[in-house]
Design brief:
Cytochrome Bc1 Complex, Chain A, domain 1, 18% strand, 709 residues, 24 helices, alpha+beta, 6-stranded mixed sheet
Length: 709
């Protein structure tokens, strides 16, 4: 079956309800009160309740009874945007200090409580606008989770002394070495931000900060930051999952109600930087492939122009169906990868075009082609089909964030801080539904001008870092009076709360059946959100490679989406994009997978595409040569990434010469150059057979619907 005509998708997605087509009445959950997501007045909505304690602490409750789990998502409304001059990295350092211990939870014990309670997804993160702390626990551990979260917020500062600070400064500086200085293009991204933002702007430095600033933070600075920002009136907790709202409110009051509010944090008012003349720089780094970044200042998140530029990013570089991918990767074969994004933030956003070049390709030539494509988009509106693809992708991505209570909780906290309303999802999608092609084109012309941008060329070469900052000797003991308390002592907090009786776990049972041709089908129904995922798993992984052809399995599976007897690679990409879905093909050690994920309404066309790429691959010689060059370049990139290099060496040592799992999964340079069309076709014919495969499907499909598909 062919992919749906673009005009049909445009008609569906142009509705003001944004997701009324994606969430038809027939796709509503069988037990609607089990989940939190619904449609109201034609718009997607998340049922929630928001309230505020007397001390200003915000709480958002989202009851979702699908599984006996509760997600705890605490946002402190402080990030690098709130850092003082000379204190870059402070907000992120504070994230580490919070996890180090608190008044009632000894250092190193926090994760032990989470693990012992059966918790998952325990972590924290810092971006320019906020710091978050999250984990997910079984629903019978609701009180345990609130006890932990309250101690993190209210009693962390009680345990911070010179020893704790020095320890975490060392940890964060090492994280900078790993995540920035030893990461391909890490210092390039830092240079891009420093070229975009002037001295003193809170977005100028990387979130992790500089060695000098991290090392220079004093204990008095930490206490002042806690007094200002780590107060209940500057934080929001989202609980999402299986709990009783009345009991949850009582427990929130118990654990957070006595924390003392602080003064209102200072408002951050920073004008958007203005660039009057193009800024260009070349940065050398320990990289294998050159990279081009072209970036502009653009409107803040949810401001006028933000959604238009988000759509423009999808049109230009939002996947294999996008303009720049088709031009630079598929047609001209100048680029290894293409990424275009509208990085939305509270003070201002960044529109970023990022192109990794193929070996030998000229960044100047790539830049000329990018400039021409942006100029075309600025002068000629995109097609209705291009906007429909962008809308469909945005909507599917948003629904997928709602599948797990962990990401659902974070989404509501995001909307609460950035839009001022946790239930903003429907209005968020409506921003995109209301846009016209002319809106997008006009906004591109307004903001993406050549004289208001930064251009960074990253080239292989010597890595130049700032002067080394010495690490002082670690203090052996804390001085008297180093610790302080922001909240009153409450001895009852020292005892961890016990769990209530656990609910009986009813795990959905997967059913299986076999088709007449021998294909095993495994079905795990998941009613609720109208989403479907399907993986065709074939016994055709790395272990099936002939001894003289390492990488043949990876080459074969990677070729499947690159063209069939009736569809070109571009047509396959456009078909998937029109559905707002994803289709990927990847090798493993024992298996190869072709994976589809999208809306329920796209399952028929999506599975038809999966069937076509698996059953009718073309193996056209031009496509083979194009993919060969791409795989050779990716093999070169292994050399610039320490973890990948360690894995490659480790596999050779563990498995030994001659074992099929010893070489890199992509193979070797020699084997990739030796594999021809005949070898690919022979491997496909010998291994891609129904009796050697299983189709695993999960989502909002009944067994009868799946059997018919």
């Amino acid at each position: 079956m062919n992919a749906p005509a673009p005009r049909r998708l445009v008609a569906l997605l142009a509705l003001a309800g944004a997701l009324s087509a994606a969430l038809p009445a027939a796709a509503a959950p069988a037990a609607p009160m089990e989940g939190a997501v619904s449609t109201e007045a034609g718009q997607l909505a998340v049922r929630h309740e928001k309230f505020r304690l007397a001390n200003g602490f915000e709480v958002i409750l989202v009851e979702d009874r699908r599984l006996p789990l509760v997600a705890f998502n605490l946002w402190v409304h402080a990030g690098p945007r709130d850092e003082a001059k000379g204190q870059t990295g402070f907000a992120h350092l504070f994230e580490h200090l919070v996890f180090a211990g608190s008044k009632h939870i000894p250092r190193g014990e926090f994760d032990k409580f989470i693990d012992a309670a059966g918790g998952t997804d325990s972590n924290g993160s810092t971006n320019f606008d906020r710091t978050n702390y999250y984990f997910t626990l079984p629903s019978n551990q609701l009180e345990m989770g609130l006890w932990l979260k309250a101690d993190m917020l209210g009693y962390m500062i009680d345990e911070v002394d010179s020893i704790a600070l020095a320890n975490q400064q060392d940890v964060v500086r090492n994280e900078r070495r790993q995540g920035v200085e030893n990461q391909p293009y890490g210092i390039v991204e830092e240079a891009l931000y420093q070229a975009l933002y002037p001295e003193g702007h809170p977005y100028r430095a990387a979130v992790i900060g500089s060695h000098a600033d991290i090392q220079g933070i004093q204990l008095a600075d930490v206490k002042a930051f806690a007094r200002t920002y780590y107060r209940p009136n500057n934080a929001t907790l989202v609980l999402a999952g299986d709990f009783d709202a009345k009991r949850a409110k009582a427990l929130v009051q118990k654990y957070f109600g006595t924390l003392k509010a602080g003064a209102k944090p200072p408002e951050v008012k920073v004008p958007m930087p203005q660039i009057a003349q193009e800024r260009r720089l070349v940065v050398t780094d320990r990289i294998e492939l050159s990279r081009l970044n072209i970036a502009w200042h653009t409107p803040p998140m949810f401001a006028a122009g933000d959604a238009e530029l988000d759509m423009a990013a999808h049109v230009l570089g939002g996947g294999k169906a996008s303009r720049l991918y088709g031009l630079l990767v598929r047609d001209r074969q100048l680029a290894q990868s293409v990424q275009v994004s509208q990085g939305s933030q509270s003070l201002s956003s960044i529109f970023n075009v990022e192109i990794v070049a193929r070996p030998g390709a000229s960044l100047d030539d790539i830049e000329t082609l990018v400039d021409a494509e942006i100029a075309r988009l600025a002068s000629t509106p995109p097609s209705d089909a291009e906007l429909a693809q962008a809308r469909a992708t945005i909507q599917t991505d948003l629904l997928q964030r709602m599948e797990k209570v962990t990401t659902l909780a974070d989404l509501l906290n995001h909307y609460n801080q950035m839009a001022g309303e946790p239930g903003f999802v429907g209005r968020d999608l409506a921003r995109y539904a209301s846009l016209t092609p002319a809106n997008v084109s006009t906004t591109v012309a307004q903001w993406l001008k050549k004289d208001s941008r930064v251009v960074v060329q990253a080239q292989p070469g010597e890595q130049v870092l700032a002067a080394e900052v010495p690490t002082p000797a670690m203090p052996t003991q804390a001085a008297k009076g180093e610790r302080e308390s922001l909240n009153a002592a409450e001895p009852w907090r020292r005892k961890p709360p016990g769990a209530t009786k656990a609910k009986a776990l009813a795990v959905p049972a997967a059913q299986s059946f076999t088709l007449a041709n021998g294909l095993t089908v495994i079905h795990s129904p998941k009613p609720g959100l109208p989403l479907v995922s399907a993986s065709l798993v074939v016994r055709a992984g790395q272990g099936a490679n002939p001894p003289d052809r390492p990488g043949l399995a990876a080459f074969t599976v990677s070729m499947l989406p690159e063209g069939t007897r009736t569809r070109s690679a571009q047509q396959i990409a456009e078909g998937i994009a029109a559905l707002g879905a994803t289709l990927s093909a990847s090798p493993g050690s024992e298996e190869a997978r072709v994976h589809f994920s999208g809306l329920k309404q796209s399952a028929r066309d999506g599975l038809a595409l999966v069937a076509d790429v698996v059953m009718n691959p073309a193996f056209n010689s031009d496509d083979v040569e194009r993919l060969r060059a791409q795989m050779l370049a990716s093999l070169a990139q292994v050399r610039e990434q320490a973890p990948l290099l360690a894995d490659a060496v480790g596999n050779r040592v563990v498995y030994g010469d001659g074992h099929p799992l010893a070489p890199h999964i992509v193979g070797t340079e020699a084997s990739l150059k030796a594999i021809d069309v005949a070898a690919l076709r022979a491997f496909w014919q010998g291994h891609y057979r129904p009796e050697r495969a299983a189709l695993v499907v999960a989502g909002d499909l009944s067994e009868a619907e799946l059997r018919e598909l």
